[in-house]
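FORM 12-B: Structure-to-Sequence Request
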């Protein structure tokens, strides 16, 4: 049987992270420049073998713990395919999405892995099924994921997402350029989400009020995107960052990059994803992206990337 390959993009959250776990809306877009790629090929006479050199993994699938995210993803496909056992296959995973950095690396690996295995096993899964399977893996990784990462990555579209509801797609009225900058600090989403939950349990009224504030910001951001109001979107991103700091998920390195982006001419900047490290995003006029990226590198970013949301 010939080898098959599947690929999935990274993502950024334009507004609404954390509050989205508590039922408020959020906006996310795919980032096609960073990707997870999975190839499945024959492994004649051998076991199902899985290798992910980026994380130093090379093992028989059967030797991974049953609740290992990669094992869960493959097992989900086996069940969906109605197969008693898997074919002898070799699964290779490569990703250019930094891990634990707010760019959706876990969800992208799950989606590409599920797609490649399904294709290899000859089972046609809908995006909805792929999204459901990837969500189950996210649950193992994060505890209480909203589902926004697996959704934006499965569909590869800009999404307005609300937990438990069908997502809506949104379209920008004019091209929007974002500079993404990495603090280089690993920050597993499960930890920040867990800490926010503890704080919410201790001060439910305060946190609910802040999450409502974020919801308002997300509606404003969507309106701004859909009407071509770049300054309005920048303002919404800045307001979102204020609340994210209050919630306790920013950190000095993120704050420094956010400030550097604004100093270099960004019309808005905020952390993106779980926070306390990982990546931040800045909204740039297209002619300003290079200058902003340079300002971010000078302020300590270990990597910058420019992405565009096209109308
Ligand atoms: O850090 P990331 O890329 O996994 O972003 C997750 C976004 C959160 O809102 C913090 C969690 C979630 O499940 O929505």
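FORM 12-B RESPONSE
SEQUENCE OUT:
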């Amino acid at each position: 049987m010939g080898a098959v390959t599947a690929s999935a993009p990274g993502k950024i959250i334009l507004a609404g992270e954390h509050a989205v776990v508590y039922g408020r809306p959020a906006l996310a877009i795919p980032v096609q420049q960073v990707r997870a790629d999975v190839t499945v090929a024959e492994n004649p006479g051998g076991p199902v073998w899985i290798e992910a050199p980026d994380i130093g993994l090379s093992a028989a699938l059967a030797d991974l713990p049953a609740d290992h995210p990669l094992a869960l993803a493959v097992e989900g496909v086996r069940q969906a395919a109605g197969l008693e056992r898997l074919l002898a296959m070799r699964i290779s995973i490569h990703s250019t999405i930094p891990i634990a950095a707010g760019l959706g690396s876990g969800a992208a690996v799950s989606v590409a892995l599920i797609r490649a295995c399904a294709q290899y096993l000859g089972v046609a899964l809908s995006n909805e099924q792929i999204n459901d399977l990837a969500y189950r893996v996210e649950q193992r990784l994060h505890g209480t994921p909203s589902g926004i990462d697996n959704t934006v990555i499965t569909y590869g579209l800009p999404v307005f997402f609300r937990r438990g509801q069908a997502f809506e797609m949104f379209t920008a009225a004019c091209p929007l350029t974002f500079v993404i900058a990495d603090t280089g600090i690993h920050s597993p989403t499960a930890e920040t989400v867990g800490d926010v939950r503890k704080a919410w349990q201790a001060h439910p009224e305060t946190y609910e009020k802040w999450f409502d504030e974020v919801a308002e910001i997300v509606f404003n951001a969507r309106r701004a995107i859909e009407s071509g109001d770049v300054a309005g979107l920048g303002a919404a991103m800045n307001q979102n960052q204020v609340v994210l700091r209050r919630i306790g998920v920013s950190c000095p390195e993120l704050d420094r990059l956010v400030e550097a982006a604004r100093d270099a001419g960004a019309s808005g900047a905020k952390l993106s994803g779980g926070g306390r490290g990982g990546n931040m995003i800045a909204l740039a006029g297209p002619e300003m992206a290079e200058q902003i990226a340079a300002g971010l590198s000078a302020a300590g970013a270990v990597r910058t990337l420019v992405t565009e949301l096209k109308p």
